[in-house]
Write a structure and sequence with these properties.
The protein has 167 residues and is α+β, with helices and mostly antiparallel strands. Helices cover 24% and strands 44% of the residues. It is elongated, with a radius of gyration of 20 Å.
Length: 167
């Protein structure tokens, strides 16, 4: 998601003129509703295909490999290999760039599904006491559905204005 967002911020700031950019909705730097609609279109149109000419990979699904998540410092869950689906269907609630402040804000709501394989491990004394045993190890398949997750991002970026053009 951050890759596509970085790319869109670059397009907005640079005003690059190519076939991909020609298909985008044209927005004023101060027209936040237009920017939101442009990002929504990019998510839905390019999520499953990426943008090969700009080296923007497919981001729906995202393949996750060997990502560890400590849960309450009690159990460590590692996603050995998983697919996260649903990003191209996210609803952009708010998206705006403030070039002068070098900031962008994104508020997005998604229904996501994560499916894959996991490993779990714990040698935490509290878990040992609770379950009455030694270290805990496990692995298997997982499917997690998250509905209406809302993510708010405040992003800094660097731009420079030369001859009335942001670069």
């Amino acid at each position: 998601m951050l890759t596509i967002l970085t790319f869109i911020l670059s397009v907005v700031a640079l005003g690059v003129n190519t076939a991909f950019v020609d298909d985008l909705i044209k927005c004023s730097l101060k027209d936040h509703e237009c920017q939101k609609n442009m990002l929504q279109k990019v998510l839905s149109d390019y999520g499953r295909t990426g943008i090969p000419e700009y080296n923007v990979p497919i981001f729906d699904p995202i393949i996750i490999k060997d990502v560890s998540l400590p849960l309450l410092n009690l159990v460590n869950i590692t996603l050995v290999e998983a697919k996260l689906k649903g990003l191209s269907s996210c609803e952009v609630d708010k998206f705006s760039t403030q070039i002068e402040k070098k900031r962008a804000t994104l508020n997005i709501t998604c229904d996501l599904t994560l499916k894959g394989n996991y490993k779990a491990f714990s040698d935490n004394p509290a878990i040992k006491t609770l379950l009455g045993g030694n270290t805990i190890k496990g692995d298997g398949k997982t499917k997690i559905k998250v509905q209406q997750i809302n993510v708010k991002l405040d992003i800094s970026f660097l731009v420079e204005k030369k001859n009335a053009i942001y670069i």
